[in-house]
Structures are given as C-alpha cells and as structure tokens.
Description:
This protein has about 80 residues and is mostly helical. The chain has helices at about 45-50, 70-80.
Amino acid sequence: CRYPGCTKVIKSQGHCQRHGAKAKRCKVEGCEKQAQGTHEGMCKRHWKQVHFPPPPPKPEEVPPPPQGESVYDEIIPASIS
C-alpha cells in the first residue's frame, strides 16, 4: 500500500482496502458480494453455481406420477365456479 506507514498488500489503485482500494463486485446482476480474483469476476457462490451445478435428482427422489382420480378434481373446479 502506498499509504505512509502501511505494509498491507495492494488490492487496487496502489492501496489496500483500508486506505481506499475499490473492491470489485461480483458480475452477476444484483449480487453485492466481492469478486474473487481466480473466479472470473464472480463471488465464490456464483462461480460454484456455474462450474459445479448441483446434480440432478435421482429417480427414486422424484415422486411417482399421480394415479387415478383425486378428491380435488371435483372440489376445486366446483369452488371456482
């Protein structure tokens, strides 16, 4: 840092964050978190979402399709009309 007496690491513009460096923000719209230098201009959360998306649900975790008629097939239309 160029500030007199400061020995902290330079972030940008020749200063550390304490003495006036502007922290880069995540490039994802609406995100206010600080971008990481090794994460393509994104915060860690958004970088992980892009590069390591959650796996799709396993077939046994997806509920089976409904079978037969439901009580609600008659109640809901009747209540709307």
